[in-house]
Design a protein that fits this description.
By secondary structure, the protein is an alpha/beta fold. Helices cover 46% and strands 12% of the residues.
Amino acid sequence: MTKAEIAHVLTEIGTLLELKGENPFKIRAYQTGARIVESLAEEEIARRIADDTLEEVKGIGEALAQKIGELHTTGKLGFYEKLKASIPAGLVELLQISGVGPKKIRALQAKLGVDSIAKLQAACESGAVAALEGFGEKSQEKILEGIRNREKYSRRHLWSDAFATAEPILAGLRALPQVLRAEHAGSLRRKMETVGDLDFLVATTEPKPVADWFVAQAGVKEVTAHGETKASVRMQSGIQADLRLIPPEQFVFALHHFTGSKDHNVQMRHRALGLGLSMSEWGLVPAEGEGTAKEKAEQAGRKTDITSEEALFKKLGLAFVPPELREGLGEIEAAEKGELPALVEVADIRGVFHNHTTASDGHNTLEEMTAAAQALGLEYLGIADHSKSSVQARGLDEQRLADQVAEIRKLNASGKFKTHVFTGTECDILPDGRLDFADDVLAGLDYVVVSVHSAFKQSRDDMTARIIRAVENPHTTMLGHLTGRLLLQREGYEVDAEKVIDAAIASKVVIELNASPWRLDMDWRLWRKAAERGLLCAINPDAHDTAGLADFRTGVGAARKGWLTKEQVITTRSLASIKRWLTGRKKG
């Protein structure tokens, strides 16, 4: 196991022990152990296990050292498996509800017999939870909101999770000898922030072997349809995957149809009719004449000269519209006028800001994060650990921040890495709009990200004024996750985005597109208009571990949906250029 996986198991052991009401010192030992493991380099953990010197690390006793060694060596831990088996599944499931932690679960079980989400909901609706000591009306409503959100979002999946499921399926389809062409379509191809199900299209003249492979592939939990034109399965992850088997001459038309949103497709069909054509998933044929669109397409057979989506758009007098833009939001008019933007590409990104280390709530050290950034080919990496008011994230106080700045400067001076590290902070915006660090502290950093992490229930006007005050601070470089939303978990707080955007443009402050798959915030729907008015974007992964650094790629997908170009994204600038920009802001 890697150190991140070991730390995850230790953290979960602590949570499970808390559910059982175990000794707080024992619980804390596992939680502390997880943090210590994260702070060590992978090589040091391996060496100490091999040398039997893990106990020499402060905070790791004999029992914990034995368990870490077992996990590292075998990938399993008997103690952990027995502990999981000893706790009813319903209690563990309750942890998925926002506002419900181990202590509250124990109280709910002991006093109300709650051992499932259904029982918890019933207890809330009856008012029994509000009547419990330590809960009250506000806690009860927050729990009910968490239950409603879980139900609301249960049928959708993060784009990144859906993509991770879809890619090996697509690769498997393309490897089959009977498959001439294969693509995924739908909201996944349009890079929507969440995905309902997966759509795969295959061009083939031998559909049966392809359908047979699809329903028998690894990871299938349930087969819901199995024919020679369509097959459907539910994967172990819970997401449904649909396969459509299409004659080669109809593939391009089906790909366009099953990719576009409803509005995009309606507008495209309307344009085709204006040209005397009937457009459908089966083909592009004369509107006049006998028979349905499908029958006409079948009669046309292999005579079509449209073998690509580019050719299909050209036939309708349009420039090619990238899949991300096919939402019916003006892309067809822009394509007709030749005014579609040259969208930002993954290869354009030169660096990232807003990333965390083990100094706050990250899972990897400064050096590990820098090495990972270099491995991704990034020229620069911004470290922005939390500030002191984010107690839950072990935010840095002034002294710890100063120590980190010195460590970063020493690392840059050492020449150990080609990737340059910028000193920064993710500074809390306090409820009244003040920043968590004084101006003289912020002045000593390369850049400052300001974010809201508390008092989410403020009114729309108060939240807007709060954020604008922070944006107008002369030391603010960029605003983090504008709405604070967590996709599939919670809605963002109420804020007037337009007023905040106005303030950011006036103050020459960047707003980030937080590329964490859970955030993708600021929302892509706001970017086109804002960027046209001069707002700059920073695509930041908000990485809390080395793997998270690569999330900037997901952010690029959202940026493309927002019609953003390379020039509108500052993280496409070279190291020399970004240094000049940061220096210029300070002088300004």
